[in-house]
Structure prediction request, 492 residues.
Amino acid sequence: VPDGDTPFIDLDTDQQRPVQVAILVCPGFAPADIIGLHTIFGILPGATVHLVWKNLDEVMGIPRFPSRATTTFDDCPRDLDVLFSGAVLDDIFEDAETLEFLADRGKRARWVGGSCAGSLLMGAAGLLRGYRATTNFQQRHLLPYFGAIPAAGNVVEDRNRITAGPLTGSIEIALRLLQDLYGDELAREMELQIEYAPTPPFGVRSPALAGPGLTAQALDHGEAMGAPFLGVAERAAARLGVAVGG
Amino acid sequence: VPDGDTPFIDLDTDQQRPVQVAILVCPGFAPADIIGLHTIFGILPGATVHLVWKNLDEVMGIPRFPSRATTTFDDCPRDLDVLFSGAVLDDIFEDAETLEFLADRGKRARWVGGSCAGSLLMGAAGLLRGYRATTNFQQRHLLPYFGAIPAAGNVVEDRNRITAGPLTGSIEIALRLLQDLYGDELAREMELQIEYAPTPPFGVRSPALAGPGLTAQALDHGEAMGAPFLGVAERAAARLGVAVGG
Prediction:
């Protein structure tokens, strides 16, 4: 059985420019928020995808999905094309070693990206101060605590910061980054290769379409999940010197 | 750090009916094809998601993503609500123990689902004979070798078989299964909770939209990946007694 390095897509040699991608895989990471970006870069012969964490021990994702890093923080290339995170549990937001790693790689990375609460994590590392950004709708009001400016759009791009909501957010970020890093032709072909042809069945895919009743219900049902993030955001604001709602 | 069992969504008690879901996680599995379904069921308090394989040893996904099963074939409940697989490498299609497991659980499961080449794998286990089904466009012509009838649609449902293309396929299958297992209201709320509001950027997301030129290029670039599946399909047809193109 191959070790997983086999590229799926047989690209032209001139499109195989070396690209270094690092994705955070820590205890309590959300695999659904990173796997689109992971897969899209992972099937390109020229790209190296590092799943990064402090060590290579097994970690458990949320919901329950075992995985582990393939590259430690120490071994991660210092100059990255893409630094990315999806949602992680709130305790990671206050882990000094993780924030230091993200801040260090992020300040030199060509692109810094986050989907769902991964956007907020980049904010906690000081990487969204003064940038327009987005995240999942349940936590969008917390962006200002990290000095970010909430903006509309499925994918929000401000200079080299790129953020989105959950699940399909990382697919759309990846397609945009392919366009920047490899050009239009490859990015277009990838949209077809992965048949990114979604048809949401119920017509309630955003708060605007769902209306106030269903949106309130969804916020209520998600409250237990989101609750710890307010404290995290308030402490981040204090640490970063961000004044909110003053 | 929690072990990953924390449910995200605080549902009403009457929606917490016990549902058993099994998803194949084997060497060479494609995490992107299963993670939507995994996450959508995984955040429901009433559902138990089993990642299943012969043992609990680490396996490497494609592209490179370490994981492992959480439940062995032997320990997997005999009566499942959902049996599901995404794409796997071709050697799994001829692994007797895997095919036997799928055939056994599949014949009693309330739903049998597959996305991308996971549909073909269910076919190899004899579970699609006489059923309408779909898979990724690159391999759709192979469905008849497994006795399946290729059908149009993002998600194809025929009695209790449900199949789709890659990546977002497992999200759309999961939303449909929630509707069947938990009812309309919960399924609609989930579409909003996960903000399944995709906006494919390039307008070439299917062969019909991409046109013959880009489609031919995509097929050419994907040929190396798909090549082993023709032999697999031919041998499956012989084993299953399916006459193709006669």
Remarks:
- The longest strand of chain B covers residues 47-53.
- The radius of gyration of chain B is 18 Å.
